[in-house]
Specification:
By secondary structure, this protein is α/β, with parallel strands linked by helices. Helix content is 31%, strand content 15%. It binds adenosine-5'-triphosphate (ATP) and magnesium ion. Magnesium ion (MG) binds next to helix 1.
Length: 193
């Protein structure tokens, strides 16, 4: 394999006594939720496991991870669905269209889970989709309750629902201390998208 960096020659590997799939939530108002999930995808690839990423409300504006995943030599698929953030200033699409797109994304997630296609599935911005009623609480709870035991699921986005948090194993809140946009610095490629 082409060498891309260095690692120690002598390494130990941990193996858990019991493998189990975890439900992880990354929520909060600070920057770093989606990129945290993408970081776990990078790790999962290192273990030769398979990754799926379904992004809600994101299909309208390019993000580096769309091509980034194609450049990773592992089993990783990304589906950017939707037409941008529902309700944000300047978004021209009606709620019903956002809802239909999010429902398609839920169907896709269900199909991929049923087919046992991945070891890690990231449902990016699904917390926001739930908050905006583009998906229903029961749909999300059902995915969490019925998931295969070894599947890791990561749910990102602000305002995670308390009942979704109840079913999760690991929940982190990213809190804004500062954000460049408050200084009117535009989003920068690579860091912000
Ligand atoms: P990232 O994708 O960088 O990990 P995130 O998933 O935590 O960020 P989101 O709320 O999904 O954050 O925001 C998506 C992008 O918009 C991020 O790049 C973030 O830096 C930027 N952003 C977040 N909040 C604001 C805001 N209020 N105004 C402008 N840009 C913002
Ligand atoms: Mg995000």
């Amino acid at each position: 394999m082409e060498k891309r960096g260095t690692a120690p020659d002598k390494i130990d590997r941990l193996e858990p006594k019991v493998r189990r799939g975890l439900i992880v939530i990354i929520t909060g108002n600070g920057k770093g939720k989606t990129t945290s999930a993408l970081g776990m995808a990078l790790r999962v690839c290192g273990h030769d496991l398979r990754v799926g990423i379904i992004q809600f409300m994101k299909g309208d504006l390019y993000a580096g991870e769309w091509d980034g995943v194609k450049k990773m030599s592992c089993d990783i698929e990304l589906f950017a669905t939707g037409k941008g953030f529902c309700g944000i200033q300047g978004n021209p699409y009606p709620w019903v269209e956002h809802r239909a797109n999010a429902q398609d994304a839920i169907d896709l997630a269900r199909q991929k889970i049923a087919a046992k296609r991945y070891d890690l599935l990231i449902l990016d911005e699904i917390n926001n989709a739930l908050k905006l009623k583009l998906v229903d609480l029961e749909q999300v709870l059902e995915i969490l309750r019925d998931k295969p035991p070894l599947l890791h699921l990561i749910l990102t986005g602000r305002d995670a629902h308390p009942q979704v948090i109840d079913l999760a194993d690991t929940v982190s809140e990213v809190r804004e201390i500062k954000h460049a946009y408050r200084k009117d610095i535009e989003p920068q490629p690579g860091v912000d998208y």
